[in-house]
Structure formats: structure tokens, C-alpha cells
Write a structure and sequence with these properties.
Chain B: Its main location: membrane. The complex is a heterotrimer. Chain A is of the alpha/beta class. Chain A is built from ten helices and ten strands. Classes of the chains: A alpha/beta, B mainly alpha, C mainly alpha.
């Protein structure tokens, strides 16, 4: 990672992982990961399954706190206020209110489309109908779903197609104006057409927000991300601009994985 | 997010988390209410009853004088009724469970059987009493006997045994069946060599829970006409009136523990209430022990089997 | 051509094949017989239900030839054992409804709170202890609860309300409520635990607290299972017998005031069965008519519960 290959280092940082290690009980799943996340850019995490990319992603909104026996070491410095996301003094709820997440399989709540999108606002205690109406519409528009659902907002979220459900979940995580959005293999359960529309959406969303996405699909990483990180067995092997990582990787392991010689 | 917004966010989270804490306390409180009721019930019965429990209490017949009264005929009656119940309910329940899991095809007959099992589990026990009164006592002419009571309770706990059997069988992985079928086994060979043996601990758990329920059942036994005052024991095999047979006791009049307790509870004299407490204490200990055994068995089962 | 040649070797071979077929046939027969026996055991449940319905209808039929249905439904007195006999089921129904209401007011809130607490809040160790404990509580014979209601709870309540009679529907109902808590809690908890983790994660990821996740996502997702638990609780309360027979007195009393004594459908049946009613007398048939009313009442609840359980099992 020399100055020459990274001309954009002047870009504002949104977050920075420093010596991040993570343990499931005694098993160390992440080893001393260091990595910047740039604001208003898409950063993708690639690597073979079990390499720790999802584990890493879920550190950013402290999802691991939901289960007993998990432990973090190191820090994630969140800009601009330099909150350490992993600090035990920082409430995981505060972290999750600022950083939203879209999951591998669409997980709409058993509620109406409207209430699904409004959920985050209601959780924050927002009760003014007009405010919620506006934000729901804005989020659905940003998630490119408004046209399809504007006449059926009171229908159950589960009635939508798979791709629509995932866009609904994106709308849900957009409605609360997150500063960073996490995507955990968001298209792995979708067909190619739905995948294309989600990818297009992600490229649009980066105008507003920093995005960190886990994908098992290298073409997807190449298509949508500005930066790419290759992970292997809990370690960050290589991080750089997507073009550089895919065309001229610095590390032999990265090249092997990308060219399919891996394994 | 600027510092001011961040501060507002943190204040809101503190408020939200306070509700979490309040609900946590309410939850513990609700559990405590259940726990305290149980403690009070147990202590009340122990304080009033333990003093009455003695060898004489266990070996005496009921009496008009509270101090002389005992539970001999009651516990003997309970044991004999349980014997009949177990002999009827275990084979029938296991057979039905095996049929539904291993044989039944997905059709309307199976659906009807399943709806019936589920529905019978929710039928009030006193209805079983009425069924037994109309069917066993007067239609089949079995009389107000140990046999009638045992069969009634068997019908009552049949759904429990069936459900336990089915759950135990369901936890056996499909590969075990496939392995046995691949060796050329017939369905019955698979069932008798593999399915039933491997699910026996789970079935036993269900049987014990069912028996614990049966031993405390009062209403259906009253309905079939158990007597509340019995000062004799059922005839032992070959000792009754000639021609004495092996199973004469099946047709003898009887009483059981909960009915003896009910009888004493409805007396106004305090001395009889102490007897009721003593009988109740023994009954609670018996059901707790049985249920405890079942829970322990299930716990062991969960720990030991790993497929 | 050689296939038509019958050699000694071929005969042996044919013999073996026919032996195997014979063995297969007897094997097949044995299998069919066993299957038939097992089927009969399973079918016993259908027979039991049919027998219950038949017995209740048969005896009630005779009853209703003596007592017009309109009297049964609309008479406000229940005195079947008096010379001036009245058969107004409403009287018994009022006792059943009143005591059940008291019980459900205890069991549904407490059972639901315990279920939410155990499913979403309690640490693993607490749940491991609390669940078997609740099961033990649910296994205590109801006659014991009856004794407890009459000789512990009623005297306790009388210290607060001195005018409370020794037999009353209130203390019977309260104790019945505690008895039902384990059923409601355990079934509701099962339903909540069946809600996929993905939904909880989705909620937590938006910054929701435990309570918000529980009340806004988990409970709504488990609604049909929780409703089935409530319905089981209702049907337990309606069918409960001994607590009421012991602690509520057995005087028929058209009242909805829990502070009064009263008889329920179930305690009336016990009362009659304790006496010496000759088979075939009108008093004997009364208990079947009462039983039929009870059966119809619980059947409705059980069927609703069955379909709700089925629905929530299919949901995930």
C-alpha cells in the first residue's frame, strides 16, 4: 500500500479498524486486522468461506454482543467523533443506531411494508405520523421500491418477492439515516435480476453513505466496490483500490484466490 | 454525527435501557410469585402434615377417629390402579406413536387421528370420568372397580405417552432408518430393532410424566365411583371368595390417595385436616419425585446422545 | 434354447426362488398384521372421542326428554336434586366463567411475562433452572392446590377482606391461575423461541433494545403460538374440577362476584358422583348434560388452539 497506488488517501475516513482481534470463546476468528473505511465509498470484503469476513463485518455493529462468550480486542475508530465502536463503555445500541445492517437472507418483520420501514424510527421513539410518513417514503424511494409498493403499504412485507424483500430491508436500514451501512452477502439468496437491481442500488447509495459489503462473488466486488480487502483465515491479506487488487495484486495469495488457483 | 446529536442519542438510549431493566425485574418478580406459591404450598403441607406421618399412618385403615386413621387402603389402591394404567397405556401409547411416525401415510385418516390425539389432550379429566361411568361401569359391566379406574386413567394419559413417543422417535436421524433398510430389514424389524430401543429413554420420560399426572387425578376417579371410606384391602390372588382367581383384585372396590385426601379435606374437624395435609404431603412428594426423575432422565438424554 | 432345458441345477434354482417368494409372502403377511395392530392402537384415540360424544349424547338425550332445552338454557335456578327441580345451566356456567376469569387474570399476564423473560431476557442458567421448576409446578395434583386454596389462601384473604366467606370463587380462581401459569408460560416460550434468530438480529441491528425487540418483533411473530397457549389455559380453567370442588363450595349460585361461593359445571358433577344416585335416574343424567355443555365449551377452544398451533408451525 504505497502512496502511488492510493491517490485517494485524502478522502475522509469513516472508520478505521486497529489491531482488531475477535474471539468466539477460545477460538480466535480475527487476527490483528487493520483497515480503513472511506466515507461515501463502497468497500468490499472477499475471501473463501470461513475466512472471517462476516465475523469482521458484524464487529462494526457489535452484533457479536448478542451471544455470550464473544470477545473483542483492539479498536474500531469511528469518525468524525473518534468513538471506539468496540469499547465496553460504548453501548452497542448506540453503535447500531449509527451503523445499520442488511443481512444475507431478507428478514422482513411480520409487519406491514410501512411498519417495516418505520421500525427504526419507532424504536427511536419517533411518533409524529407526518415525520414517519416522509421518512418512510424517502427511504423506499432511495431503495428503489417506492413505485412498486406505494399503493400497498399496508400489505405484509413477507408478501413481496425475494428481491423486493431485500430492498425493503435496505429501506428499513436507510430510514434512520445511518452513517455507515453494512451488507452481509445481500444478494446470495437472490436471482440474477434481483441481484443486479441491488447492486445498482448500492452504487447509488454510496453518494450518501459509507458502505462495507461482504460478498462471496468476486465479480460483484469488482463491479460495485471502490476498495477491496482480501481476507484469509482471520487475517487481512491485502487491502487496496479494487482495480489494483484485481488487476495487480501485491500478494501472491490474493492473486491465487482471484485467478481461481486457490485451494 | 456531531457531539450534540450524539449526546441526545446517548440520553435516549439510557431511557430505553431503563425500561429493559424494569422489565427484567418484573420478569424475575413473576417467576418469584410462582416460586413463592410453590414454597408456601409445600411448607404449609409439611408444617401441618409431617407430624402425622408415622408407620401407623401408613399401615392403618381410615377411621372415624382422626388419630387412628391411616392411608393403607389409599396407597394400596393407588399402586394397583397405577399398575393397570401402566399396563394399558404404555403398550397402546407406544404402538400408536410408532404407527403415526413410522407407518402412517399422509392422508385424511392420519389427519383425523392426529386431530383426535391433540384434542383428547385438552379434554377435561372429569369428562373421562363420565365416559368411564357410561362405558366401563355400565356398558361393559366392569363395575366401580380398580380395573375401571386404571383403564380410565390410561385413556387420560394416552395422549401424553403418544406425544412423548413421537417426539423421541422424531429425534432419531433418518440415516439410522436408511442404514437398517439398506440391510434389507422390514419396517417392523427397523421399528423393533432400532426405533423403539433408541427412543426408549424418551418414551420412559413421557410415561413417568403421564403416571405422575395419573396418580394425582381425583375427579375422574370420583366420577367412576371410588368409595371414600374403605376399611379393607382388595383380595390378594387366590384368597378371595371361591372360586378365587389371580385377578380378583381388579374387580374390587377401592380408594386412592387423592380421594382419601379430598375426603379428609372436606371434614370440618382440624384433626382430619392434619390427616389431609399428611396424605397431601406424601402425594406431593410422590409426584415431585416422579416428575423430577423424568426431568433428570431427559437432561441425561440430551447430554448423552449426540447424533 | 438352453433356457427351456430343465436340468437338475435349474430345478434347484427354481426351488430356491420359490422358497424365497414364500418367505417374502409370510414376511409380508406378518408385516401387514403388525401394521394393522399398530393402526388399531392409534385409532383408539378416534374411538375414545367417538365414545365420549356417544355417551354424553345418549344420556343427555334422555335428559332432554324430561327437561326442555329452553329451560336448560334460560332457567335461572339449578336445583336438580330438589323436589321442585330446576335445570338452569346458566347457574353453573356463571361459576365456571367467574372462576375462570379470575384464574386467567392471574395466569395470562404472569405466564406471558415469564415466557418473554425466559425466552428473551434470562441468562442461560436461569432458564435451565426455571423451566424444570415450572414443569414441577404444573405436575402438582390439583387436589393439593384445592387444599392450599381452602386452608391457606382463603384465611390469608380473610385477613384483608374479613367478610369473605370460607368457600369462595376468588381464592379457588387465584390458585387455579397459579396452576395454569406453567402451561401458558411454557407454550408461549416455545412459540417465541421458534421465531427465527434472523428477525431478532434484524431488530437489534436497527438499535432496538431487548424489550423493544421482544414486544415489537418476537411477540407479534409468535402471536398464533401465544394465542394457542392462552386457549390451552382457558380450556384448563374451564375444565378444572378439584380446586373448585374443595375451595369454592358446591352451592349453585347465579353470580359473577368472585367473593361469593359457587358451583361450577365440574364441581357439580363431582358433587353428584359423591352421592348415591341410582343409574338411570334423572339426577344421573344431569351430570351427562352438564358434561356435554363442558365438552362443547372446551371443544371449541381446543379446535381453535389446534389450528393456531398448526399455523405457527407452518409459519417458519
Amino acid at each position: 500500500m504505497t502512496e502511488k497506488t492510493m491517490p485517494e488517501t485524502q478522502l475522509p475516513l469513516k472508520a478505521e479498524a486497529r489491531n482488531l482481534s475477535f474471539f468466539y470463546g477460545n477460538f480466535q476468528a480475527l487476527k490483528n486486522v487493520n483497515m480503513p473505511i472511506y466515507d461515501k465509498r463502497v468497500t468490499s470484503l472477499i475471501g473463501p468461506s470461513g475466512c472471517g469476513k462476516s465475523t469482521y463485518l458484524r464487529c462494526f455493529n457489535r452484533m457479536h454482543d448478542l451471544y455470550p462468550g464473544n470477545r473483542y480486542e483492539g479498536a474500531i475508530d469511528f469518525h468524525p467523533d473518534h468513538t471506539d465502536l468496540l469499547s465496553s463503555k460504548v453501548d452497542p445500541i448506540e453503535v447500531r443506531m449509527r451503523i445499520s445492517m442488511v443481512f444475507q437472507k431478507p428478514n422482513p418483520f411480520p409487519k406491514s411494508i410501512y411498519e417495516n420501514v418505520a421500525y427504526g424510527l419507532r424504536v427511536r421513539g419517533e411518533s409524529a405520523r407526518s415525520v414517519i410518513d416522509d421518512k418512510v417514503e424517502a427511504a423506499l424511494r432511495s431503495a428503489a421500491l417506492w413505485g412498486e409498493v406505494k399503493d400497498r403499504l399496508n400489505e405484509q412485507g413477507a408478501n413481496l418477492s425475494g428481491g423486493q424483500q431485500q430492498r425493503l430491508c435496505i429501506a428499513r436500514s436507510l430510514a434512520t439515516d445511518p452513517e455507515l451501512m453494512l451488507f452481509d452477502e445481500p444478494t446470495s439468496a437472490l436471482d440474477p435480476i434481483a441481484t443486479a437491481s441491488i447492486e445498482e442500488l448500492i452504487t447509488e447509495l454510496k453518494e450518501k453513505v459509507a458502505i462495507l459489503i461482504v460478498t462471496h462473488n468476486m465479480q460483484q466486488a469488482a463491479r460495485i466496490s471502490d476498495y477491496t480487502a482480501y481476507m484469509y483465515i482471520g487475517e487481512m491479506v491485502e487491502f487496496g483500490e479494487t482495480d489494483q487488487v484485481f488487476i495487480k495484486p501485491n500478494k501472491k495469495e490474493t492473486e491465487d484466490y482471484i485467478t481461481g488457483r486457490f485451494g | 454525527m456531531n457531539q450534540q446529536e450524539l449526546q441526545a442519542l446517548r440520553t435516549m438510549i439510557v431511557v430505553h435501557k431503563r425500561w429493559d431493566m424494569i422489565f427484567g425485574l418484573i420478569g424475575i418478580l413473576a417467576l418469584m410469585i410462582a416460586l413463592m406459591t410453590f414454597t408456601a404450598l409445600f411448607a404449609d403441607m409439611a408444617i401441618n402434615g409431617v407430624g402425622r406421618i408415622s408407620w401407623e399412618f401408613l399401615t392403618s385403615f381410615p377411621s372415624r377417629r382422626a388419630a387412628d386413621a391411616g392411608i393403607l387402603s389409599a396407597w394400596v389402591g393407588s399402586v394397583l390402579v397405577m399398575l393397570v394404567t401402566a399396563f394399558a397405556a404404555v403398550p397402546l401409547g407406544v404402538a400408536a406413536g410408532v404407527y403415526l411416525e413410522e407407518y402412517a401415510r399422509k392422508n385424511w385418516v392420519t389427519d383425523i387421528i392426529e386431530i383426535n390425539v391433540s384434542n383428547l389432550a385438552g379434554v377435561p379429566s372429569i369428562i373421562y370420568g363420565l365416559l368411564a361411568l357410561g362405558l366401563f361401569v355400565y356398558t361393559f359391566g366392569l363395575g366401580q372397580s380398580i380395573l375401571t379406574a386404571g383403564l380410565t386413567l390410561a385413556l387420560l394419559i394416552l395422549p401424553v405417552v403418544i406425544v412423548a413417543t413421537r417426539e423421541a422417535i422424531r429425534s432419531i436421524p433418518q440415516i439410522i432408518r436408511e442404514g437398517a433398510y439398506a440391510c434389507g430389514a422390514t419396517t417392523w424389524q427397523v421399528v423393533s430393532d432400532h426405533i423403539v430401543p433408541y427412543s426408549s429413554a424418551g418414551i420412559l420420560t413421557g410415561v413417568i410424566i403421564g403416571m405422575a399426572r395419573a396418580i394425582g387425578e381425583t375427579a375422574p376417579i370420583i366420577t367412576v365411583g371410588a368409595l371414600t371410606f374403605i376399611a379393607f384391602l382388595p383380595p390378594a390372588p387366590f384368597t378371595g371368595e371361591p372360586p378365587a382367581g389371580l385377578f380378583d383384585w381388579l374387580f374390587a372396590p377401592f380408594t386412592v390417595m387423592p380421594i382419601q385426601m379430598f375426603n379428609w379435606t372436606s371434614r370440618p374437624e382440624a384433626a382430619f385436616l392434619a390427616n389431609a395435609a399428611a396424605a397431601g404431603f406424601i402425594l406431593v412428594l410422590m409426584t415431585l419425585a416422579m416428575n423430577g426423575l423424568a426431568i433428570w432422565l431427559r437432561y441425561r438424554l440430551r447430554k448423552n446422545i449426540n447424533w | 434354447m438352453n433356457s427351456t432345458v430343465i436340468t437338475a441345477e435349474n430345478i434347484v434354482l427354481m426351488q430356491q426362488v420359490s422358497d424365497r417368494l414364500k418367505k417374502d409372502f409370510s414376511r409380508h403377511l406378518k408385516e401387514r398384521v403388525i401394521e394393522a395392530i399398530l393402526f388399531l392402537a392409534a385409532f383408539l384415540s378416534v374411538f375414545t372421542t367417538t365414545a365420549i360424544v356417544y355417551i354424553l349424547l345418549k344420556e343427555s338425550w334422555i335428559f332432554f326428554q324430561h327437561v326442555p332445552l329452553t329451560d336448560f338454557l334460560f332457567d335461572t335456578q339449578w336445583t336438580p336434586l330438589f323436589d321442585d327441580a330446576h335445570y338452569g345451566i346458566m347457574v353453573l356456567l356463571s361459576g365456571t366463567i367467574t372462576s375462570s376469569m379470575v384464574a386467567l387474570l392471574v395466569a395470562i399476564p404472569l405466564g406471558t411475562i415469564i415466557a418473554i423473560y425466559l425466552s428473551e431476557f434470562a441468562p442461560f442458567s436461569v432458564r435451565e433452572i426455571a423451566k424444570p421448576f415450572l414443569e414441577l409446578l404444573g405436575g402438582i395434583p390439583t387436589i393439593i392446590y384445592g387444599y392450599f386454596a381452602l386452608l391457606f389462601v382463603t384465611p390469608l384473604l380473610q385477613k384483608i377482606f374479613p367478610e369473605l366467606p370460607g368457600f369462595n370463587l376468588l381464592s379457588a380462581g387465584l390458585v387455579m391461575g397459579v396452576m395454569i401459569i406453567p402451561y401458558v408460560a411454557s407454550l408461549s416460550e416455545d412459540a417465541m423461541r421458534a421465531v427465527p434468530m434472523a428477525l431478532r438480529e434484524g431488530s437489534y441491528a436497527t438499535g432496538a433494545t431487548r424489550l423493544q425487540t421482544s414486544l415489537r418483533v418476537v411477540v407479534p411473530a409468535a402471536t398464533s403460538g401465544i394465542a394457542a397457549a392462552y386457549i390451552l389455559g382457558i380450556s384448563r380453567a374451564v375444565g378444572e374440577t378439584m380446586i373448585l370442588a374443595v375451595a369454592a363450595g358446591m352451592q349453585p349460585n347465579l353470580t359473577f362476584n368472585p367473593a361469593e361461593p359457587g358451583a361450577t359445571i365440574t364441581s357439580f358433577i363431582v358433587q353428584v358422583a359423591l352421592g348415591d344416585l341410582p343409574h338411570g335416574s334423572i339426577g344421573y343424567q344431569t351430570i351427562f348434560a352438564a358434561g356435554l355443555s363442558l365438552m362443547l365449551l372446551t371443544l371449541v377452544f381446543n379446535l381453535i388452539g389446534f389450528y393456531m398451533r398448526k399455523k405457527y408451525r407452518e409459519a417458519y
